[in-house]
Amino acid sequence: MSLPIAITVEGANIMTRSFQIIGQGLTRCHPDFQDLLESLMMPKSEEKEGVKTFTKQFYKIVGHAVQNFFQSVSRGVGATVSTKTRSKTAYRDGDKLLDYHEKQLLRLSANFALTADLCFTLGGRLKFEELLMGRLADALGAIYLGYATLHHYSRRRGIEGLEATTEHALLRLEVEAQNALNEASDNFPGPLGGLASTVMKIGCFPLGNMSRPYRQPGDTLTKEVSKLLTTPSELRDMFQEH
Q1: Residues 10, 163, 167, 241: which is the catalytic one?
Q2: How crowded is residue 21: how many other Cβ atoms within 10 Å of its Cβ?
């Protein structure tokens, strides 16, 4: 009698988080890396063309990394200033809510792009660094959910209390992405791990601890969201639709 092979959902999710998202997605999603790989597989008869393509793509990859570095630094400084000077009640203005959090997600996206470029210093060893890939997957997931939250808000805008729940969700997601990137910079592996860690810290957090400005939602905002969801309201009716 044959028995089915048991594969738990938790096991599949762990493999996705710690291997597939970054280990497989890094080279496939890079704008220039795929062409570089294809140049290495050209036949002997096209060797000159392959070398030419490889050299061109290599410089494009380096240029892309440099651009990501400076973009990460500039957005990091800008995001730090806007966060430090932001009022705790600024979220009540829907336009300001969208503008602020979109800029924070752009900053975190730039930080992630720089970190992804630094992963190339690991070469094939990357696929054995599950802790690093897991942290980067957490950061990417938080950024993705952040954009999904903004999209949902923009579609359902006008519901009383939606600004508060959107602010609460986005603050938590930004902290999650920030912490994941910070832990990755503290533990970057490989022979060039020390150098990559330094570049990542300068690029992602150019002002040190000041460049990690995101904090969990305060109790006042949490109580406001709790009240909206536990008493009859238009917001609670929206969630009950699904």
Answers
A1: 10
A2: 19
Tell me the per-residue pLDDT of 195-242, one tens digit each, with 9 for 90 and over. 999 999 999 999 998 999 999 999 999 999 999 999 998 888 888 876
**What's the rounded Cα separation, in Å, for the pair 161 and 214?**
22
d(CA 3, CA 236): 46
Please count the residues of the chain. Answer: 242
The DSSP code for 34 is H
Task: Identify whether 10 is a catalytic site residue.
Answer: yes
CA atoms within 13 A on the CB side of 10: 0
Could you read off the pLDDT of 25-35 as tens digits, one per residue? Answer: 888 888 888 88
Residues 123, 126, 129, CA angle at the centre, nearest 5°?
150
Residue (of 209, 183, 225) closest to 83 by Cα position: 209
- Contact present, 222 and 168 (Cβ < 8 Å): yes
Provide the mean pLDDT of the chain: 90
* Of the candidates 188, 101, 98, 174, the residue with the CA atom closest to the CA atom of residue 143: 174
> Which run of H or E residues covers position 239?
helix 234-240
